[in-house]
Design a protein that fits this description.
2 domains, 11 helices, Rossmann fold, alpha/beta, 41% helix, 275 residues
Length: 275
């Protein structure tokens, strides 16, 4: 479990980015951090994996403070995927990118390493690109290379910053599969996202932030049915969800499949009455 206990963080210019935030994340969860720019999402995500340290409070990884762990110990258990894949790609082939950190783990055999890489490349739809230079790939595939490299390490937690940025519908579908696989492997996925459609489709738990604090931590259905939270956080729900809410749909009907079924029922009932 990752636990933040009353953490605050101020930047050198004095700006208070986080103010006494407490939150927990457990194995196998899929959690979205949402809110407007400046709400504190990215700052929180960087605190969660030790990229920065809190000004007050502490972050615990399985009851051990991150302050007491070396960076390599944190990296073994908490993966981080940047919004821009170019910021963390530095090898000349997809295979080498995935193998680089694994080969430095003395406890792993060559067979273990090969299997981990194979699994990661398959789930990220990169099996045909093993010898390709990652920087020669389109943006979407470069993002998946960084996901594969992180997943090959089999971290307990995976933090992803704006995962759908630059992805088309096919890329979003691939990403959804990656998230599902990670959950099945017991990996907790924490995503910072402005993409409410993707959040609704893929994250059962949503943490809403505003002005450096958490204002709601609940199921996606509860969050997007809460007018006060939406107004305070300035979140905009996808049009289909908003229309369904106004049409009287249950807050539980938040996925596109569920909404599709709901509207089919509405239209079928309407047509029957007109006859």
């Amino acid at each position: 479990m990752i636990e933040c206990r009353d953490i605050s963080f101020s930047y050198p210019d004095g700006h208070l980015a986080l103010n006494e935030v407490s939150v927990r994340f457990t194995s196998g969860e899929r959690v979205a951090l949402v809110g407007q720019n400046g709400a504190g999402k990215s700052t929180l995500s960087k605190l969660l994996n030790g990229l920065i340290t809190p000004s007050a409070g502490e972050v615990l990884l399985d009851e051990t403070s991150l302050a007491d762990l070396r960076s390599d110990q944190i990296a073994q258990r908490i993966g981080y995927v940047f919004q821009n894949p170019n910021d963390q790609i530095f090898c000349t082939s997809v295979h080498h990118e995935c193998a680089y950190a694994l080969e430095r783990r003395k406890a792993l055999t060559a067979e273990d390493i090969d299997q981990r890489i194979s699994d990661a490349l398959e789930v990220c739809d990169l099996t045909d690109e093993t010898e390709t230079n990652p920087l020669d790939l389109p943006l979407a595939q470069r993002k998946f290379v960084t996901c594969a490299a992180a997943l090959a390490l089999r971290p307990n937690y995976l933090i992803i910053d704006e995962p759908t940025a630059g992805l088309d519908d096919l890329g979003r579908e691939t990403l959804s599969g990656i998230l599902q696989w990670a959950s099945q492997e017991g990996i907790c996925v924490i995503a910072v996202s402005h993409d409410m459609r993707f959040v609704i489709e893929n994250f059962p738990r949503v943490v809403v932030m505003s002005e450096g604090t958490i204002i709601c931590d609940d199921t996606a259905s509860s969050v997007f049915a809460n007018e006060a939270v939406l107004e305070r956080s300035y979140l905009r729900v996808p049009p289909g969800v908003e229309v369904a809410r106004r049409a009287g749909a249950s807050p539980d009907l938040i996925t596109l499949d569920a909404l599709h079924t709901f509207f089919n029922q509405v239209f079928t009932t309407t047509e029957s009455r007109e006859r």
